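pls ignore typos typing on phone
prephenic acid + seq
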Amino acid sequence: MAERDIETLRKHINEIDEQLVKLLDERAELVKEIGEYKKSQNIPVYHPEREQEVRERVLSISKGIFPQKALMQVFTEIMSAARSLEETIRIAYLGPEGTHTEQAVIRHFGSSVELQSFQTIPDVFREVENAKTHFGVVPIENSLEGTVNITLDEFVDSPLQIVGETYLSIHHCLLANVGNLAEIKRVYSHPQAFAQCRLWLETHLPNVEKIETSSTAKAASMVPWDKFSAAIAAPLAAEKYGLRILEANIEDNPENYTRFWVIGQPGTPIQNPNKTTILISVKDRPGALLKLLSPFQVYDINLSKIESRPSKRRPWDYLFFIDIDAGLQQKGLAKALEKVKEDAVFVKVLGSYIKGTL
Ligand SMILES: O=C(O)C(=O)C[C@]1(C(=O)O)C=C[C@@H](O)C=C1
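k done
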C-alpha cells in the first residue's frame, strides 16, 4: 500500500517535471527573441534591474512551500542560463578558484558565466579596463575585518564604474578525505580563516598541527595529497577538490558577511539604482567636512558609510569614500551633489547601482 502511494506521488512529480521542462524551453525561446532584439538595437544583454524585478515578482507569488531562498537561487540560475543563450558573459574575479569570491560571483550572476580568476585586485581592474571581460567582482568589506583598502584605492585612478553590489554570508567548512575528526593530524588554511575558527579548533581539534596557506582554496588543494589532513575552506572548494565536508559552519561568529562590488565599463546603463558611491576630496580647513556633508541632511538623504583613505598625493591629505542610500536619478541626491560639488576639491561618482541583499 505504502509502496503504491509513493509510486503515485512520484508519477505526479514526473508529470510536474515534464511541465517544468516544457515551460523552461518555452521561456528560453522568448529569451532568444529578446536576445535578437537586443543585438539589433545594440542593447546590453545583462539587465540587472529586470532580473531583480523577476526575482521579486516570483517571491511575491510564491506560497512559501518551496523554500524562498532556494526559489531565488533557482531563478538566478534560470536567468543565468537564459543570458548565456543571448551572449556568454565573462567575469574576472579575485581568485584562486574555489574561494568565497567565486561563490559570490555565482550567487550574483548564476553559474552560466565564463569565469576567470586573478591573483590580485588590481589585476581584476586591469582586465575589465582592457575590456577582456564584461565585469569584475572584487571584495570591498567584511563585517568582521573591515574595509578592503586595495579596492578603494584602485577606484581613485580607474575609470571603471560600480555596476552592482552583492553580499555573501561567509561559512567555513572542515574538508577532508577521511571520515572522522580523530584521524586528522594536520589542518591547512589561510591565517584569517584560522583566526575565525579558533574556538572551534580549540574544542574539536586541539592537538593538530596548523599549516598556513596563501588562500583557503590552496589549503583545500593540499588535502588530496596528504591523507590524514583537513582544510578550512569554502564549501565550493569541496566540489573542486573532491573532498567531503566533515563539518560545516565551523566559524566562531556566524555574523560574518563579505560585501562585493561588481565593476564594469563607465557608462554601463543601470536603471532605477537605489545606492550610490562617491569619492570626494575636501578642503583642508576647519568644518570643511561638516559643511560638505550638510546638503545630505538638508535633502534627507541617508549616508550608510564614510571611509577615509590617504590621498597618496600629499602626506596627511585624505580622500573620503561615501556610500549613499539613494540612486543618482533621485531628485534630492542630484541637488545635494550640486551643493557638495560647490565646496569639494573634487567629486567623483564611482557608481549608482542596485543595492545588494544579505
Ligand atoms: O528581459 C530581458 O532583457 C532578458 O534578456 C531576459 C532575462 C530573463 O531570463 O528573464 C535574461 C537576461 C537579462 O539579464 C534579464 C532577463
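The radius of gyration is 24 Å. The pocket of prephenic acid is lined by residues 31, 34, 46-47, 50-51, 54, 79, 82-83, 86 (CB under 6 Å). more later
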